[in-house]
Predict the 3D structure of the following.
Amino acid sequence: MSLVDLKAPQVLNLITDASCDEAPGGILAGWLEDDSSSRESACCSEIEFVIERSSTSSDSIKCSSSSTPDSSEADALSVGEAGDICQRESHVCITQDGWRLHISHVFDPTAEAADTPRPQHPVLLVPGLASSGEHTFDLLPDYSLVNALVARGYDVWVADLRGNGHSQKPCLFDRSTWWTVDDHLQHDVPAVLQYVLQATGARQLHWIGHSMGGMLAVGLLSQQGPFAAALRSMTLLASGCFGRGSWHSILAPLITRLTGYGFPAGLVCAAVGSLVGSAAALWFVEALFYMPCNMPQACARKLMTGCFRYIPVGVIRQFLGSLNSKQGLTSCDSSFRYADPEVLSSVQVPVLGLNGSWDLFCPAVGGRQTVQLFGSEAKQFVCLGPQHGTSKRHYGHFDIVSGKHAAEEVYPHIMGWLQQHDAPL
């Protein structure tokens, strides 16, 4: 194992080109066994660790078998116990084009009276494609990123984008109510940001985006519009604006032909979810969403039966038509790159990227490529997997948020990043 210290930009890069580019699809057989040693042997035997760190830091950087940050601080409450103190409120904001979006506000009502210091910035959680914010970040009390954040004192807001979760639904037979990813970026994101900032009185917030929710944050910064300055930090979970190596990059032509009227993701995934844990379980479909051995059955069942909604054809074509290209995700008319290298090279927002080593939706190579575009001196990328020494288990797309061991292997990275960058500018 080699350590290479380089000057800015600073990035914790725990995967090499060889290990990152390895297609995870060829190792599916090992996913069903909860044996980290057997799974690790299926991966590259030699991994070179390259670390670029802050040029202003005088501390030496060390790599060990587990690079998870210390999570001992503020651990008085477990994730499950935090759910007992959480108060949840439902809010509604209206986009400029008239869509009603649901936002959940989760907080500890006793926090203001406590003597302990509180974080200064709220946290906004944004889910991915066709996903519910609740089912992504707040699935069950013991497997809830929301609860973990509230336990650390954060004021948490969870968004549902148009057509998803508790937000307004489309008319499936009226194409005028269908949307694209561009509509999320141009209308939903500004409406949610404006509402949360006004409700909290904050000037900035921490953005944590899962999958497409992270891509929208990158797009917001590439736009450099009025709300770009609202991001205090950003965390990209199982995200990235480049889809090379994903399952959909292989099946894109077939998917395009079969989804001329969109895709009923809610119905299909609910059918798969109803079989979770049974002898008829469709594990090969589940493996697209999470590592079956790393996901509690109760979480898997609730995720698959309740998280997803209808995906309009415009969203499908925009994703499949650009995400897997060299340009990465672009606008429908190809005039705008969500991860614009020229713009992002001057962006100084702290960015953390966390991808699972066996994520078939957003492979780690795309997450790393996205993070590397940022000019920020505070940027890190971590590929979670035993072959990188970053976790004892492999992670897929959703178990990186609500997997069996996410609270001990994933959440500390997030909490450490938020704490490091919560101080005012």
Summary: The longest helix spans residues 181-200. DSSP finds 17 helices and ten strands in the chain. Strands lie at 11-13, 50-52, 87-94, 100-107, 123-126, 156-159, 205-210, 231-237, 351-356, 379-384. The first strand starts at residue 11 and ends at 13.
